[in-house]
UniProtKB/TrEMBL annotation:
Organism: Gracilinema caldarium (strain ATCC 51460 / DSM 7334 / H1)
Name assigned to this protein: Guanylate cyclase domain-containing protein
Domain of life: Bacteria
């Protein structure tokens, strides 16, 4: 997030008018472990540092580190719930939050995190993740069945148009649920969810893709043969990276790739057990009985047409 001068000054003012120098530094160490105010400011340890000086240095360093939103989320938590059993009412917090929202961000009350408003901007890091950040994510992977065969049998322009339609279907299922498309490859993509009820969002996005593709193949597909996909949802820790090659080194991403490619079925969505337990019962009832394959447990959903 790019922090404008007015927002920078307001954040400093909140800190030094509401908290002691010691408390300001303590919060800085939560956001940046090992933070040393004397080293950062160049002020010797035998010289006292005022709360205002500490606030200005801390906010500056946190912005440089790309952790500004983490600081604000921490301040919101302290303002509402206190810290270590003590209340810390913070001044001007309403003005601060209002300003951040006006900058094009939304606040997710479920996770207590800010994210960019998708109506204003869409980026792979939700406007907040920094390379190296690790979050618990729900992932949705899609693979186009017999991609090479489709490319071989149909004209390039027709295939590109159909794949463009598929991208639209996927985007319309993922983005409104606060998900992000991390990368599209020739035969598929990976979407990530971190906010709100992320497991539910990933599963519903997968189901919506299947439903819309079902109707697309019957009403709008001009290829002459159906577009078929395999879908999988899995969850776990992921360390964010801007480079897709580096991102794919995450164990959770390797696992969902294996689940989809080894156990996925055409025109079906499989959901691993670590995600399925977090999904509403009304959704669970639409899935098959649990299957065990190697080290994975999962359930499957597909569209059944009555004859």
């Amino acid at each position: 997030m790019k922090v404008k001068t007015g927002l920078h000054r307001l954040t400093c003012k909140i800190l030094y008018e509401s908290l002691s120098m010691e408390m300001i530094v303590r919060l800085a160490r939560i956001v940046i472990p090992g933070y040393d105010i004397h080293r950062q400011s160049g002020i010797p340890e035998n010289i006292p540092i005022t709360a205002q000086t500490a606030a200005e240095q801390v906010v500056k360093d946190i912005i440089v580190a790309g952790r500004y939103l983490q600081l604000i989320e921490l301040l919101i938590k302290i303002d509402t719930s206190g810290y270590m059993g003590r209340e810390y009412p913070l001044l001007y917090m309403r003005d601060l939050i209002k300003t951040i929202l006006a900058e094009g961000y939304s606040y997710d009350s479920v996770t207590g995190l800010f994210m960019e408003n998708a109506q204003n901007q869409i980026s792979s890091n939700w406007g907040r993740l920094v390379p190296g950040d690790e979050f618990q994510l729900a992932l949705l992977r899609l693979d186009i069945v017999q991609n090479s065969e489709l490319v071989r049998r149909h004209e390039k322009k027709a295939v590109e148009a159909a794949y463009g339609d598929l991208r639209t279907i996927v985007s319309q299922a993922v983005l409104p649920r606060m998900g992000r498309l991390w990368f599209w490859e020739g035969d598929g993509c990976l979407a990530a969810f971190v906010f709100g009820k992320k497991e539910r969002s990933a599963v519903l996005a997968g189901m919506e893709i299947l439903h819309n593709l079902f109707f697309y193949n019957r009403l709008s597909n001009t290829l002459g043969s159906p577009l078929r996909v395999r879908l999988a949802v899995h969850g776990g820790p992921v360390k964010f990276a801007e480079d897709s090659v580096e991102l794919k080194k995450n164990e959770t991403i390797r696992e969902i790739t294996e689940i989809e490619s080894q156990y996925g079925k055409p025109d079906a969505l499989i959901v691993s057990s670590n995600v399925f337990i977090s999904v509403d019962r009304v959704i669970q009832d639409r899935f098959s009985a649990e299957q065990h394959k190697d080290s994975y447990k999962f359930r499957q959903y597909s569209i059944e047409v009555e004859q």
